[in-house]
Amino acid sequence: EVQLVESGGGSVQAGGSLRLSCVASGYISQFCMGWFRQGPNQGRKAVAVIDTDGNIGYTDSVKGRFTISKDNAKKTLYLQMNSLKPEDTAVYYCAARSIGAWGQGTQVTVS
User: Fold this and answer.
1) How buried is residue 75: exposed, middle or buried, by Cβ count under 10 Å (0-12/13-18/19+)?
2) CB neighbourhood size of 100 (10 A)
3) How many CA atoms within 13 Å lie on the side-chain side of 80?
4) What distance in Å separates the CA atoms of residue 28 and residue 17, rounded to the nearest whole number?
C-alpha cells in the first residue's frame, strides 16, 4: 500500500507562488500521478496529471501558471503554482488513482 503525504500549502496573496510536494511511501514511477483540488462547496477536480511516460495534462484554468513534475528517485510529486488567483483557493490532494491512493490534502488560500 502506497501512502502519500502532501506539504507546501499555505496562505498567499494573489499573484504569489507556492510549491506543493507529495512524498510517497513507495515507488511512484509505475503510476499515473495527479494533483486534484476541492474548493469550498465544490467537488474534487483534477488539476494536473503526469503519466508513466511523462505526458502531462492540465485543466484549462491553470495552464501556463501551474507545473507538475515528479522525481521518481525521491518518490516525490510536485506542483509549482505561480500567479495564484483567489479562485485557486482549495484543498489540494495528490493521488495515484489507479491504486486508490490519496494524500490527506493541504490547504491553499489565495487572498
Assistant:
1) middle
2) 9
3) 7
4) 26
Q: How confident is the model at residue 97 (pLDDT cuts 50, 70, 90)?
A: confident
Question: Which residues, in sequence order, are CB contacts of 99 under 8 Å at separation 6+?
Answer: 2, 31
pLDDT score of 104 more than 90: yes
Q: State the residue for C-alpha cell 503525504.
A: 5
In order, the DSSP letters of 46-82 are EEEEE-TT--EEE-GGGTTTEEEEEETTTTEEEEEE-
User: Amino acid letter at 12?
Assistant: V
* DSSP state for residue 84 in the 8-state scheme: -
Residue 10 identity (one-letter amino acid): G
